[in-house]
Design a protein that fits this description.
two-stranded antiparallel sheet
Length: 235
Amino acid sequence: MAGATKKYKCTACQDGYTMSSGTCTANACTGYGTTQNITGCMETDFCMAGATKKFKCTACQSGYALQSDSTCKQTCSLAGYDLDSCPANATCEEKTCGSTTKYKMTGCQSGYNQSGNTCVLACSLDGYDLTSCPANATCESKTCNSTTKYKMTGCESGYNPIGNTCQKKNCIIMQCYSPAAYCHEMGDGTIGRYSAVYCDGMLRNDSDQIYSDWASCEATVSLYPESSWEQEECY
């Protein structure tokens, strides 16, 4: 003690510090960095720079080489191996660099076709060219790899198919008339029951039902009396 003044000197430093001329200075930790998880590193060493913990790699994983700055540099390439996993129903090659494993697709299993980096079920939509069924049409549908297409098979009543569309038919109402049937003698001696149909004044059809005798013909004439009606015709 010098007079009333109490003085001290440092005799030891805390971890992370080095004694120099009676004082404690933080360790330089040359070659160490602040990153703990060094890419590709298998073994690490640490150094305390004051209160800061620093790290350096002392051994690298397979596929990496230790560098002068105590980091690990990858020595293999994953070029061309772009997939994180092998796609469903595919065949692949696998490659590992350090702790990273990647895949490249080499083909598809039987029954599947390659589409980019996927394998899709082998099926065809040939003949199914429509993305939807046209209005007033009847269609068949087919689904292939989540894609559904259609082909037109016909049109609903009152519509005509024109290409891949159904166009409404043009319809007219006709006044039709059938006179009462009658029996008459045919040129070969047989008996005919004659009947006819007229629409809008024009003969649409007529016919003779042949009988062997008058009695047989006359017995059916009453079944075909004179009649008239309206008839729709579409085209």
